[in-house]
Amino acid sequence: MKKFTIISLGCPKNLVDSEIIMGQMEEAGYEYSEDGEIVIINTCGFIHPAIQESEGEIRHQLERKERGEVEKVIIAGCLVQRKKQELLNLFPEADAIVGHDDIPGIVEIIEGKKKPRISENPRYLPTLQLPRIVSTDYYAYIKIGEGCSRRCAFCTIPSIRGNFRSRTIEDIVEEVREIAEMGIREVVLVAQDFTLYGIDIYGENRSAQLLEAINEVEGIRWIRIMYAHPHGVAQNPQIIDAMASLEKVVPYIELPVQHASERVLRRMNRSGGKRAVLQSLELITEKLPGIAIRTEVIVGFPGEEQEDFEELVAFLKDSPFARIGVFPYYNEPGSASYRMDGQVNEREKELRYEIVRRIAEEKLMEFQRGLEGKEVEFMVEGFEGGWFHGRSLYDAPQVDAGIKTRKAFRPGEVHRGRVVEVSEDRDLIIE
């Protein structure tokens, strides 16, 4: 039996694709191993650092192939969709370069029974028809759709993954049922924009109905929402109404605002502008007091003047955000902003990045310390260094803080405990 390794780079949405590739490989009789003779690299191609990481991993694996340590190297993922011809020129020794639409047939490509075809307008959509091996413990990412129909100036996702395509509610709920039977207790709903769900297949937003259906699945304890555009939230208040009324939907949402200056938001082509940002925040905090709101912002976007940056800083300091991710602007070829005037120099970007990063640390600690003395729900995920560790309901996997406790709890179960302090590394200490 031949063994394979899959290296998954980038976001949770990419991880779902990697798990689907794993499912197909195992169904075809291959065995997963960390040292497999077939290496599949599921690349990320969103921004320059991700491209560098992907290309570095490809070079490393091809060097291993040259030394005879592996038999085949397969390149898949977003970087293939974005830079297919460049990859063919850079890495001619790769055994296959596989686009998104070939994920369902990747085994045939690896075995030489089918030639890869990289579509300019991919239609791939993960469904229950494709086998999947969940690689995470106690939680699982559920991809509710694929692609994006928004056209933010800095983003290359629509050109990489196509317009937004929704899975049916029935297909998603059945997958959640199967995952619950495996012992998974938390589902994290991911898509490029949660608020676009259903419009393409139902003619209207069905995000709230999707939450209601998943909430009925036995065995699931937590439902978490990621990637909700502020304009989509403002236009569809029923999403927040559903969050407030459904017991399994945790008080957490990721709401990437990107900026606070109306002028910069217009240049970014962020639909709804600042008005949508303020409306969505008012709606969320009114219906869900105490919620943990995660956001992302970009500093140094072309045309961002000092007064725009100062407006962003003032907004963030006075905001209800519990978690803030900050990124310097990367001038990505293929994005609408690539040739914009007013490019900000790298030194200024770094200075602005550091200022916002410090604000993010302060806001995180402010939220964490606000939980001291309160009872919170949490899930233990492991034991290390004398502590049981895991996450509270306010923390998404991989990106947020966590919890620590000396008390012994069975991993994967949801419990309640009192927060006694916040550790130096921002974790909640629970008794």
Write structural notes for this entry:
By secondary structure, this protein is an alpha/beta fold. It has 3 domains: 3-110, Methylthiotransferase, N-terminal domain (Rossmann fold, 3-Layer(aba) Sandwich), CATH 3.40.50; 139-369, tm_1862 like domain (pyruvate-formate lyase- activating enzyme), CATH 3.80.30; 375-430, OB fold (Dihydrolipoamide Acetyltransferase, E2P) (Beta Barrel), CATH 2.40.50.140. The chain is 36% helix and 21% strand. It contains 14 helices and 18 strands. It has helices spanning 12-27, 48-66, 78-90, 106-110, 157-161, 169-181, 199-202, 207-215, 230-235, 238-245, 262-267, 273-287, 306-317, 346-369, and strands at residues 3-8, 31-32, 38-43, 72-77, 96-98, 139-143, 145-146, 165-166, 186-190, 222-225, 249-254, 292-299, 323-328, 375-384, 387-392, 403-405, 414-422, 428-430. A 6-stranded parallel beta sheet has the order 6-9-10-11-12-13. Helix 13 packs parallel to helix 14. The chain is globular.
